[in-house]
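Inputs:
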Amino acid sequence: MIAILLILLIPLVGMVLLAIYGDSPNAGLINTRCNFLSFVATLWLAIDVLWNGPQLFAHQLLYIDSFNVYLVTLTAFVGLTTSIFSGPYMQHEKDIGRLTGKRLKLYYSMYQGFMLAMYLVLTTNNMGVMWVSMEGATLATVLLVSLYRTPESVEAAWKYFILCGVGIAQALFGTVLLYFAAEQKLGIGGHALLWTVLHDNASQLDPAILGLAFVFLLVGYGTKIGLVPLHNWLPDAHSEGPTPMSAILSGLLLNDALYAVVRCKMLVDGSLGTHLAGNLMMGFGLLSFLVAALLLHRQTDIKRLFSYSSIEHMGLMTFAFGIGSPWATFAALFHMTTHSLTKSAIFVTVGHAAQLAGTQRMEKIRGLILTQPSIGWGLLIGTVAIAGFPPFGVFASEFLVLVATMHDYPWLTPLLLLGIGLAFAGLFRHIQAMVFGDVPEGQKPIKAHLWPVILHLAIVLFLGLAIPDFLGDWFKQATLLISGGLPQ
Amino acid sequence: MSITDLNLYQQAILLIAGLITLTSFLMLGQSRLTRLVGVFAIQGFLLATATAIAAKVLDYPHLYISAVLSLLLKGIAIPIMLHRLIHKLGLHRVMDTIDHPARVMMSGAALVVFSYYVSLPVVAHSTLVTLNAIAVSLAVVLLGMLLMITRRQAVAQVVGFMSIENGLFFSAVVSTYGMPMVVELGVAFDVLVAAVVFGVFFFQINNSIDSLNVDQLSKLSEVEK
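Outputs:
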């Protein structure tokens, strides 16, 4: 109980604190410390849940089981390492005059606000509150996207605001329909939106209404996941906002939106008894995966390149959750973890590479390894990891997705392999030239904080070699919750 | 079932549902921004009235709170704010051009029919009133989206966005007697923050492209120019 309150209170306090002191030289440190404290609290919570099983808190408003507790921990971890990187990064941006003190206040305070919204999305038991916090996260990040106030960033933020606002409105309509269906069976009152109550009574809910609701929920939260064709905001928002924000958007926000969809799928499956929800997710996921892999080839901006890679991986996860068999679910959970860790590490190095070259255009970024080997190798190894090379964790999770697909839908395997191959080619044709190649004149090394990158990539490497017991247990328990069976 | 079989509450809700749809169509055809905001305020009032009636007849005191909230937010605060911004940015004489008004109206009508079709599965499980409420609120949501698509002015897009929220609120009130209080408060808070953020954005857009015509926001695209 105390742990979960701390998780929600620390970012709230941090938000207020940084709204006041956000322009002081210590702001980055305050931000890191807040995130560190939340991370400790999530560890506490995780151990508690691991020992004592799922728990309800605060008049059933908060609910923790093994599915969301690992996402909470992951969120806190990526939030912490990204904040370590963002302190000096934002200081550098201020030094070169791209930011003023006032904007820095906005940045730090919205960083904590975003973390708060993320924790609330994950821990709440109420489908309505989940929607509210998802919208809250949108509002916090919209302000971050337009932080530089260039015409491009304002355009990206406006696009993001409008598209996600409208998209997520569909999710609210879906939630209303859900409430409508539940209320007829469970009676009027606050309980009809509680996820635990809904899940226990899913078989009594009306299938026709729930099917309709799921379509709205998938389109709504799918906008946030960045599923094609609702993905247009994502590359713009990632490329125009500050880099630490790209890391947390890719590493956290997309995961949390997918989490919401999977929660909804669990309800709908219980009511419908068909594979409708899964089929819809598989279709959307596969389309996103293939389209994003193709679009990787056309990019000229380094951050856009990796945001398309995020769409591709989110598509793969949606597809795997859509298959719904225990193995596929296990693989999707695993892939969520490895992708988050790798992608946030990549965005950190991309941020440094862009600062080093003074531009985000890939044709101008050259010779990273010669100028500053740590950044060059970081980018290269990160890309090797995200492209799914052994022995990194992404390889293991993608391989599991493939195995699960071969088992249930063998005829889709060639499409998956095609997508993986396309994405691999798309990434490497750009990366090779940037990492090797001639050094442009006047390119000097910068002060870089690379140990978040090393830490993330080391964990991903470790996960590719072995899954620790406790993590495997979490994944298995979560798989049991989501798919109703254990991977054999 | 004929309309006279319904009790007065149901008839009142149906009437308001019709009026709300009417305001959505009025917005769709209104090219002057100040009047657009005016019509939006009327929609907010209608929404608040529907909520208050539901609260009275069904005896759910907590619905009074949401009635007051929607009156204050959507009937008064946001329209006033938008009005001020329009004057501050000198947009009160600007006519927002609507391409092919007839086509827009026809698509609006088609969306209403479509909403009734989509809501059909709900019919089997509920009364006539609920069917109309769900269908009409879905129609208002879709008409709001249509408004956003057909307009070029940022202010008009915001009005469309807010009217989508109105449709969602209406569906929550009439079909389910309001969402749980904590959700309603949260949604209201989000709407308020969104309104403030929109206000900030008007100035940012105005600074960056010297107008609020978002057609000019077209630098970012997949293909290199």
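Remarks. Residues 151-186 of chain A form the longest helix (36 residues). Chain A has a mean pLDDT of 88.
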